[in-house]
């Protein structure tokens, strides 16, 4: 029962790569996709430098999927720890 509750909570807070890429396409130069993923410091840096004059924005298209996976792994680990479930994935 705890596992189902934990999985349900994780499903509610996990980030979707499609949303991240959509935000990148619309507001990438302002760091919108980084705000979505919770990378506040990097987001602010991108906001004030216009995505590192576009360089960070272009590079992020290649690394965005990996960052979404990392954020989701961190969030899953946090939820599982809260429910005291040893997560093997």
TrEMBL record:
Compartments, record wording: Membrane
Top-level taxon in the UniProt lineage: Bacteria
Pfam families: TM2
Topology of this chain in the membrane: Multi-pass membrane protein
Residues that span the membrane, as ranges: 20-37, 43-65
The entry's keywords: Membrane, Transmembrane, Transmembrane helix
All copies of domain TM2, residue ranges: 18-62
InterPro entries (alphabetical): TM2, TM2D1-3-like
Protein name: TM2 domain-containing protein
Organism of origin: Actinoplanes palleronii
